[in-house]
């Protein structure tokens, strides 16, 4: 396809078909992401038999690979030139390798303890590399489909409605699927469940490829190196704030999601409610994402995100003081916290696209792939930090897999679900206060960029 754009293309009103097609891709991604966030730590400690501390360190150390591969992928995507555009081709060709990497990550070969740890390092790193090859172009795609502010908010809200639908499906059906597909063989059940998710995800990515269009291209005269792209980003104050914010908020989300299994099984002692707890959490996240376009019509994105993260922090801390037998109250608080967290993702990813526009407005250069690759890395780093903190705390409090926990262990597990993510959410609210791109500033940026596009024709 031609990468030439016009002012009208830049401010395109997207069809419902294109929005839904784009959104379906993130349903596919969250079949993986939710499996990692909610179950991979449990899989390592309770199924594969890796010590909690070692698994926690692995989650963090493997981010070194991501620190290298994410910006490389961003630079490669920015410089990709095909008749289908820069970003869409990766969705068509990388889905099957991603599925294979997920299956071997959730496999349990007979190895020594050290062998298992090495296997986990290699397979998890491979899976996240495949994830990067897919997710960086996918996220970047949202930045080049339209620059219309409200259309962009709506598009990304569609994306995260589908994302949370994927999360909800994973949280509700993964453990039953493992039991059903494995027919008593838990290890086989995990392999077959991930194979099923991989097939569905690959189809979703292909649908996104065929239903979307790239409309915004870098300025025709632009010639930059990856190093100059990185320099532009480091000079981009809004982007730097968003990166710090992504790390902190993903720690909150991962701590809540990853500790839910332990919280329900060992603290509330209601393991039969794990799927229901995660199911209502996913629905509430989806509802929160769905109402985001309505909220942004009346409240500036920055103020809205600050308010929501403050609510998450206060309610999470309050949840610690609810006695374990007040299960219904705990469920209600979980729903309210998830409702407040739901708009976070569409707001933050819309702001990443805004920061790419800010770079183009400020420098005359655009590096959408690099902008989103660093955002993807920050998200993965925050998730890894959340998982690492959770597993390190479990190791420190003497957690023993599949056994009754001591009082100290139960208290630590409760903290992982409540106060610790609550405090981190309040830190996120403080970080947001420094973000400078208000609605008025964004309107000025888009007006100037539209004029430049018209003048260059």
TrEMBL record:
<feature type="transmembrane region" description="Helical">
    <location>
        <begin position="277"/>
        <end position="295"/>
    </location>
</feature>
<feature type="transmembrane region" description="Helical">
    <location>
        <begin position="190"/>
        <end position="210"/>
    </location>
</feature>
<feature type="transmembrane region" description="Helical">
    <location>
        <begin position="304"/>
        <end position="320"/>
    </location>
</feature>
<keyword id="KW-0812">Transmembrane</keyword>
<dbReference type="InterPro" id="IPR018043">
    <property type="entry name" value="Na/Gal_symport_CS"/>
</dbReference>
<feature type="transmembrane region" description="Helical">
    <location>
        <begin position="50"/>
        <end position="69"/>
    </location>
</feature>
<feature type="transmembrane region" description="Helical">
    <location>
        <begin position="21"/>
        <end position="44"/>
    </location>
</feature>
<keyword id="KW-0472">Membrane</keyword>
<comment type="similarity">
    <text>Belongs to the sodium:galactoside symporter (TC 2.A.2) family.</text>
</comment>
<feature type="transmembrane region" description="Helical">
    <location>
        <begin position="239"/>
        <end position="257"/>
    </location>
</feature>
<keyword id="KW-1133">Transmembrane helix</keyword>
<feature type="transmembrane region" description="Helical">
    <location>
        <begin position="381"/>
        <end position="401"/>
    </location>
</feature>
<protein>
    <submittedName>
        <fullName>MFS transporter</fullName>
    </submittedName>
</protein>
<feature type="transmembrane region" description="Helical">
    <location>
        <begin position="90"/>
        <end position="106"/>
    </location>
</feature>
<feature type="transmembrane region" description="Helical">
    <location>
        <begin position="153"/>
        <end position="170"/>
    </location>
</feature>
<keyword id="KW-1003">Cell membrane</keyword>
<dbReference type="Pfam" id="PF13347">
    <property type="entry name" value="MFS_2"/>
</dbReference>
<feature type="transmembrane region" description="Helical">
    <location>
        <begin position="326"/>
        <end position="342"/>
    </location>
</feature>
<dbReference type="InterPro" id="IPR036259">
    <property type="entry name" value="MFS_trans_sf"/>
</dbReference>
<feature type="transmembrane region" description="Helical">
    <location>
        <begin position="118"/>
        <end position="141"/>
    </location>
</feature>
<feature type="transmembrane region" description="Helical">
    <location>
        <begin position="413"/>
        <end position="437"/>
    </location>
</feature>
<keyword id="KW-0813">Transport</keyword>
<dbReference type="InterPro" id="IPR001927">
    <property type="entry name" value="Na/Gal_symport"/>
</dbReference>
<dbReference type="InterPro" id="IPR039672">
    <property type="entry name" value="MFS_2"/>
</dbReference>
